[in-house]
Amino acid sequence: MTPPPGVTGTLITVAPTGAEHAKADLPQLPTTLEEVLETARRCEAAGASVVHLHIRDREHRPTLDGGYLRAAVEAVREATDLVVQLSTGGSVHDPLEHRLTVLDAEPDSCSLTCGTTNFGDDVFLNPWPFVAELYVRAREREVVPEFELFDLGHVATLRRLLDTHGLPFGGRVHVDFVTGVPGGMPATTAAVMAGVAMLPEEVTSWSATGIGRGHLPVMAAALSAGGHLRVGMEDNVVFRRGRVVEHNDELVARAAELARLLQRPPLTCAEARELLGVRE
Ligand code: KMH
Ligand code: ZN
């Protein structure tokens, strides 16, 4: 694994909303455009350089509607320097054809999950033809994919993608281990290390996130092993035992503090662009 020269700090991605939590249960979840913009600004100030976005409609329901997506991409770009990454995972109920249309909103980056996984009582569907089609279309649109790996088998699918289709737009390969989903790999140091050991040599950087209570252990494991971080209410809504997250920027600030302690301070947005190969 060869990171681009000069990058030694920590990429912090914030995933502020996701598709799973209900606004009614968690009023502080940013769902309106105004809330997303306020969150993006505060998280950038706290040390984030990438924002992973799921968009909600006026009723706070997850949507892949192109109008909403485009408006969010443009507004976040206007308000911040963050790398704007749109989720192509959507919710478990979104049809594959709709998920492909996410690229029409012209984000800097998109998530690209490398295989199907059990997702609690549901199934998060990512069959090979869909994964390959999304990969090829993202390159045509000059969108940098972030490869989401929920399970070790997904590393093998990334290998297959690189073998059959070559490198993505930008020439870098950044992966994110999403651990702790019921049905995917557990949020443990051992699982993250097993994934890292299997990564194809084309991979230039990796990050990890722990869903739920594995959040802090996975953060510490990733930082100590040279990885990057993803935090946010999509993945974790408990700040510490008995205290719910009040704002996404608390999670970013805690990640940034830990990164600084380990002498790997947060990357700027410009450094993040270089690391990921995202267009200026
Ligand atoms: N909401 C999950 C079903 C992604 O953003 O690409 C999928 C997910 C992954 O969150
Ligand atoms: Zn997501």
What topology does this entry show?
Blueprint lengths: L11 E3 L18 H14 L3 E4 L1 E2 L5 E2 L2 H14 L3 E4 L9 H5 L8 E5 L3 E3 L2 E3 L3 H13 L3 E6 L2 H14 L8 E6 L9 H10 L6 E6 L4 H10 L3 E4 L6 E3 L2 E2 L3 H14 L7 H8 L4
Parallel strand pairs: 1-2, 1-12, 2-5, 5-6, 6-9, 9-10, 10-11, 11-12
Antiparallel strand pairs: 3-4, 7-8, 13-14
Bound molecules: (5S)-5-amino-3-OXO-hexanoic acid and zinc ion (ZN).
The site of zinc ion has 8 residues, from loops.
Structure notes:
This protein is of the alpha/beta class and 280 residues long. The protein has helices at residues 33-46, 66-79, 96-100, 128-140, 152-165, 189-198, 215-224, 248-261, 269-276, and strands at residues 12-14, 50-53, 55-56, 62-63, 83-86, 109-113, 117-119, 122-124, 144-149, 174-179, 205-210, 228-231, 238-240, 243-244. A hairpin with a 2-residue loop joins β13 and β14. The protein is globular. Bound molecules: (5S)-5-amino-3-OXO-hexanoic acid and zinc ion.
Notable characteristics:
single chain, 280 residues, TIM Barrel, two-stranded antiparallel sheet, binds (5S)-5-amino-3-OXO-hexanoic acid, binds zinc ion
Quick description:
Helices cover 36% and strands 19% of the residues. The chain has helices spanning 33-46, 66-79, 96-100, 128-140, 152-165, 189-198, 215-224, 248-261, 269-276; strands spanning 12-14, 50-53, 55-56, 62-63, 83-86, 109-113, 117-119, 122-124, 144-149, 174-179, 205-210, 228-231, 238-240, 243-244. α1 (33-46) runs parallel beside α2 and α1 packs parallel to α8 (248-261).
